[in-house]
Amino acid sequence: MSYSEIKRLYHIIQVQLRYGLDDFIPVDPRTELPKKLRKSLFWIKNEYPDVPLGERLRLALQELGPVWIKFGQMMSTRRDLFPPHIADQLALLQDQVEPFDGKLAKRTIEESLGGPLEQWFDDFDEVALASASIAQVHTATLKENGKEIVFKVIRPDIKPIIEADIKLMYRMAEIVSRLQPEARRLRPVEVVREYEKTLLDELDLMREAANSIQLRRNFDGDDTLYVPEVYTDYSSINLLVMERIYGIQVSNIEGLKANGTNLKLLSENAVNIFFTQVFRDSFFHADMHPGNIFVSYEHPENPQWIALDCGIVGTLNREDKRYLAENLLAFFNRDYRKVAELHVDSGWVPHDTNVDEFEFAIRTVCEPIFEKPLCEISFGHVLLNLFNTARRFNMEVQPQLVLLQKTLLYVEGLGRQLYPQLDLWATAKPFLENWMSHQVGPQGILDAIKSKAPFWAEKLPELPELLYDSLRQGKVMNQRIDKLYDNFMENRRTHNQARFYFGIGATFMVCAAILFGDQVATYPAVSVGVGTLFWLLGWRTCRK
Q1: Where are the domains positioned within the chain?
Q2: pTM, whole model, 2 decimals?
Q3: In the chain, at which end, N or C, are there fewer CB atoms within 10 A of the end residue's CB?
């Protein structure tokens, strides 16, 4: 490790200890030695002993920077895994990170616009409306039409911090892979690479603008999800200008109830929106923490989601979608044999895996879970148990599915937060069954024919020509193959003849060696001469 990496690692440990995060280590005889080592190696005391543990965790993650804040945002959605005093504090990381100076934000905006802000906008507010790990938001009014807009501005000097942490994560992933062979199954380097791509993509606000436009188009006319309009004429790589929206933050349960929102329908819509994005569009919002999700004040009986911050999106190819849908349906139907076979067929576990043993291991883990009512089952817990089981069968982490797994946990966490009785399984199963019937049933065949029909119609007039060319090329190819075969046979005959001459020559040489001891010197000389003659004939035959 380089000096800068060691220095950063020490800083991370220092911050964690300064905020007393070692209090998270449970009191147990097995943890006594690590605690003693910690005190002997790091003489750093907890500077905030009177601050609640959840708040200390939030402050530490906030001080460590965007990579760690993102981690805290993800944890904040899993209220089924963390107690309220932890989850409530982590939720503040979603949009209440310490803002940077508004004057600096204005200067950055003007540099991006190429002129004074007042030339295009009125009523700029230097006080940030919201501040997150990578960017912060300011409000203004667009002069040309009087519409309220927001500026999203990238934090200054944020990229070097992210790159330093990612570099350290790479180094740690490589060390873990070398020291712990079992960790290779988790493919830590590939996972860090995927995380790096995700974070660096967030630094390019033109990419976010394109993602927002795509997601808005995908749900055009759909009353379940609204994506604000983006003003691309004013946007750039470090500035995004978009429509200002008014809504209730999804984490504000009391506000949603006061507005009369149908929380059951809202949570079910979240599941349907997610699966629609994944399976219909192959393009899903992958950063659905509560800071990015609002609910419209209008039509609370049929609530509409509002999605912000499309910097992180995920995609799946056709094969991954098919295997994922079949896996989920097999789980819903408790068909563990199918789950095991799909894992082998997709290459997620080695092809020589014993399917019977794998099926039995999955059944052993999942059956006790499914004994509970489905509305009480956490899909996150099922996934974790499945991965722990699959580890025994050398299952590798699929980097292309990491974002999807994380987003699915977000969706479940949000849904259960809104409506604790949410039955994610019952909500998702009809959608997946309908999607699969469209993919492999008669409707799927008709849809495939429809999509290919224009291409076939375009190529149909060329079909006779293509057929003639194929036949002619086949004839020429057969002639070439015949010629190559004749050449091969001729070379084979030549080499056989040459080997025959070399063999006779070698025989005469052996005879010369045997006759060398005789009194008559003529016989060995003649044998050598004849042998040499046959070797020359063999060499000449090879040269042909």
Answers
A1: 3-94, 102-261+291-309, 318-440, 473-543
A2: 0.66
A3: C
